[in-house]
Amino acid sequence: MIGIDVGGANLKVVDRAGAHIHYCPLWTEAPLADLLAPYAKDGENAAVVMSGELADSFSSKAEGIKFIVEAVQESFPDALFYGTDGAFHDGPVPQLAAANWLASADYLRERYPNAVLLDVGSTTADIVPLNRFDDLCGLTDLLRLQQGYLVYTGMLRTNVATLVRAVEVGGIFTPVSTEYFACSGDAHLVLGQIAPEDYTAATPDGGPVTVEAAMRRLARVVCADLEEIGEAAARGIAAQCWTAQAGMIVRAVSTCMGTSECNMIVCGGIGSPLFAGMLSGVDLNRELRGMADALPAYAVLEVAGRDGTR
């Protein structure tokens, strides 16, 4: 059996060879079935979670769930889909919507029974108290947003205009443009917090994934060319975006730890090393042999094995 996590931007697959991440922004013609086909061999089955049903190419979550289930079933007719009820299903049901975070919690709750999971991916940050699993079952993304368990900011795809309304440039407090000129991936790349190979999303301008190109995009946020403000100012914009983003996430984690009375933090996702170091947490990349970037895909596979469904 393999583990599959179908997100709105990335398809993540865990098999015997390790974790595989494919950039696959979901729309109704997305090549999801084509990307999965090579993994269907020797009678392999799949355990699946999703969050891509929210993509705005679908008129509803139900339509998105149906599209994803049917695409997976082209290669894995007997695939099992994990839901927010903590159970596996063999067809499209409402409980499949955005259950990937719960699969991670289901797997980790016995290993880290008194920890908060912080999973910072390309798009969002999940903050999950692992000692409250029964209370977590049934939560939708709407409820998680309201309860502080979902912070809609990530390491790659976040528009920097959602992080800061103004930045200091040359000693002057400068409002930012709300155009999609630069993203969080640009800030993290410029600051050396990710490598170019980690930047697995499309750039806002379709340009290259280099530090210079990222600084040019960040300069555009204040309606300038890089030559106009200089590299130091562009790096300053990146640093201010990171400070704001880190503050959003750390505040949510702190609140969750206080209400849940957890006493440790475990970190997954592309942001795992960065936040584990900042928060003195456990870096699941080390614990799970590099699988933390595809944590829900790995977790749903392990849960299926634990529950005897494979």
Brief sketch in words of this structure:
The protein has helices spanning 32-36, 61-75, 100-108, 133-136, 141-147, 184-190, 211-220, 226-229, 231-260, 272-279, 284-287, 295-306; strands spanning 2-6, 10-15, 18-23, 46-50, 80-82, 88-89, 115-120, 125-129, 150-151, 166-169, 172-175, 264-268, 282-283. It is of the alpha/beta class and 310 residues long.
Structural write-up:
By secondary structure, the chain is α/β, with parallel strands linked by helices. The protein has a domain at 2-101 and 294-306: ATPase, nucleotide binding domain (Nucleotidyltransferase, domain 5). It contains twelve helices and 13 strands. α3 packs across α12 and α6 (184-190) packs across α9. The mean pLDDT is 95. GO terms for molecular function: hydrolase activity. Residues 47-282 form the Hydantoinase A/oxoprolinase domain. Pfam families: Hydantoinase_A.
Q: How far apart are the first and last residues' alpha carbons, in Å?
A: 7 Å
CATH topology annotation of the domain at 2-101 and 294-306: Nucleotidyltransferase, domain 5
Give the amount of beta strand, in percent: 15-25%
- Helix content bin: 25-40%
CATH class of the domain at 2-101 and 294-306: Alpha Beta
Largest sheet: 6 strands, mixed
| Protein structure class | alpha/beta
Numbering strands along the chain, what is their spatial order in the largest sheet? 3-2-1-4-5-6
Oligomer: single chain
- CATH architecture heading of the domain at 2-101 and 294-306: 2-Layer Sandwich
The SSE order reads: EEEHEHEEHEEHHEEEHHHHEHEHH
Pfam family, one: Hydantoinase_A
InterPro entries: Hydantoinase_A, MfnF
Domain Hydantoinase A/oxoprolinase: 47-282
Protein name: H4MPT-linked C1 transfer pathway protein
